[in-house]
Fold these 4 entries.
Entry 1:
Amino acid sequence: MTKRTRYSPEVNEKRPGQWLVGRSVVVEIQGSDKPALIAEIVLLHIVGDST
């Protein structure tokens, strides 16, 4: 069985010190009509002084 994974990151600054990181992941299996997995992962990174 052959698998292929596509990974597409995207980064956007929401506000100063806040980074929205989105990732799309698609896992395909050879010979299958449909992907085995489609996922969207979203993270918000906040950097800077926490006080």
Entry 2:
Amino acid sequence: MTTVLLAIGPWQIAVIAVLILLMFGGKKIPELMRGLGKGVSEFKKGKDGEKEKKQDD
């Protein structure tokens, strides 16, 4: 069952990309990606901060 979910080919990725483009439009996608990048960097900072706290204890 899980192998079916992970088997995404190039056609499926292309269809997903086209759907996202149609839903959000070309001008909105960079803003969405910028927000996603900021969220990922904040998550990494928080994760690294937790590691430092554990090492200090």
Entry 3:
Amino acid sequence: MVDRVSETSSTTSPGRRAVNSAASPRVGLPRRRPVPRHPGIYFRPRLDGKVASPYELTFLDSAGKRRWQVIHGSLEDAEAKRAELRLRRRRGERIEPTRQLFAEYAREWLERQDVRPRTLEKYDWALRCHLIPHFGRRRLDQISCEDIASLIAEMRKKGYRGWTITSALRPISLILGQAARKGRIPVNPMSQLERGELPRHDDQRPKRILSLDEMQALIASADTEPYRCLIELLLTAGLRIGEALGLTVADLDLRHSVIRISYQLGRDGNRTLLKTEESQRAIDIPAGLIRRLLEQVEERGQLFDPQALVFASRSGSGLARKVAREALKRAAASAKLAPPNPTLHDLRHSHASMLIAMDVSVVDVQARLGHRKPDTTLRIYAHQWKYRAATRSQIGRELDRLFHSDQPQLHAPAEASTTPFALPPARPEPPRTADAPGRPYRISS
């Protein structure tokens, strides 16, 4: 065990010193003595004269202050800690140890964050519900990778899904990473977790991909025209629900049947800029749909207001997400869809699956969905790409012909070419002479 001690103070009140002298059996002994043949390491003198734990070592931090550190272990542990500090200093790493508790450091870190309100809300939830109750009373240097692994295992036993656990660990990873960068701790324990200890993301709810008939039935079963337009927009444009609810009249281009997605409607009802440049995009939608969207705005008398929301409540404010979710539930129940009922994000997945079935390239699918990289699109919809490849495969037909034909015959492979690979022609071997070492002597022709 390691205890960090702050800079030693030389002022002690006489009364306090008298009390310590009367209560301590080590009267007359010095505070510490150097361990023979171990420079920089000290021990606390004992009445029996033995050199034993705890040991102390001294070093200068990055600010030039003299600090002492107590090692509750063997002399080898003290030597290893001293060598580690010297190596970190030689590498140019900051060394500013602290005795601050995780709860205090985490609250200070949270106040300095300049992030989106939704992200700040997630950080506060993770710290308040999981991290501070588990690590709040520990010092930063007392949190190990085994402690974090035990938290992950505990959350798994409680039934939390993989992405929920990952969201809960995001703040502590940032906090300990910053503490390591500032020299408060030697290394971020999150980086020492093994693959088997990390949260698994294979326990998520499977995507509910709708067929074309289910899409049409869902649109027709919406109880009002605004909800019918919203569901059709999510299915034909693949928008996230926040992006759809954040559309304004200025974002609709009737002439070219194009919508511009630059903002989203936050959970607080305010429009905020999208997080990435790739999310800010322009996509084409059916011409009839964009006319119906403008007709809904015209019925409210806001057609000539560029900032008027396309989907709005009766008061003109933004439509709440829970209202859209309830409208989708009613439409799914009326359409008598097979369980499980689709979510709002499943409509986006259904749109992507439809594009893949239409043989749209991965780059175009990525641009339409607003993903940052094509790799993201391939990873999320890997099963859809595999299914499309299977539907285009001719192997099954060839096997059927081979096993069920009256005269099965395997196609003979094409004759191998004399030059199957684009390799440069081989150089002719030089004639062997008696001057060549290590080779049998022969007369060149």
Entry 4:
Amino acid sequence: MSPSIGLVFEVAALVGIPLFDQESGVLATSIELAQSKIALLPKRIRIKTRAVDDDF
């Protein structure tokens, strides 16, 4: 294993995602909370392209 798995665990802990909960009620609550946060995110990101003004 590489150190990246530790980084994943650290990020999950910082964000508040419990990885090793055994109670299904706590897990269901966490899933609902994550889904409500995801619902607030935009569906897609539009990248605005600007025309380059290279007329010196």
